[in-house]
């Protein structure tokens, strides 16, 4: 999870393009390395390592199979100033589906484990229209800073509020154009975004939102992110010093592009 900075902070204009953050070097069969680091002592944004892990898995899958789901666990804090190694295991290549597991490693320690599934494009019954109440047009919303090194532009209508730590309904787009006809890059970009902000609200006003614990994303159609997407986080659950919430990602036509859930540390400082 990445906290949206205070509203008065200036938007970071020095962040690298999202396409640069997704770029990996192939160093051996099933072995990849991230290429982008920052010259600062900052934690690695969880969405970035998830997106890179998905890219690594996708680069081992035959052309024509798009990612349809991922499930990951954040095990340690990553360092934004160091590269990450991704080790991919091929669990299965079937007639329609491919399954991959990936481990993300920094300094010999595992920071993320994730499973991904890919499928061939098929036609079938669809029910993807969103029932989410629409937000006003993004051009009429207020831009909020996404934070250091976050390659996103986010806009909100009503935030901050007394009940919300972070925006739970917002428009978002990448800070650069994504490559055409590259569904893997678009899926990875959406996965990158799904760790932004958080869907847990204040209860007593003394809660502390900590790091993400686990994360899952489902892609309902061929990923394509060429314009603003609307993100809506639903009501979450808090218990046992953990918080969980669901979310939907909707395009400008009201179609649900992706769904997500996330669990994170949620403690009370009282």
From TrEMBL:
CDD domains: Thioesterase_II_repeat1 (cd03444), Thioesterase_II_repeat2 (cd03445). It comes from the Bacteria. One of its GO terms (biological process) is fatty acid catabolic process. Transmembrane segments: none annotated. Coiled coil: none annotated. Residues 44-118 form the Acyl-CoA thioesterase-like N-terminal HotDog domain. The keyword Hydrolase applies. Pfam families: 4HBT_3 (PF13622), 4HBT_3C (PF20789). The keyword Lipid metabolism does not apply. GO terms for molecular function: fatty acyl-CoA hydrolase activity. Keywords: Hydrolase. Residues 168-265 form the Acyl-CoA thioesterase-like C-terminal domain. Belongs to the C/M/P thioester hydrolase family. This is Acyl-CoA thioesterase II. It comes from Rhodococcus wratislaviensis (Tsukamurella wratislaviensis).
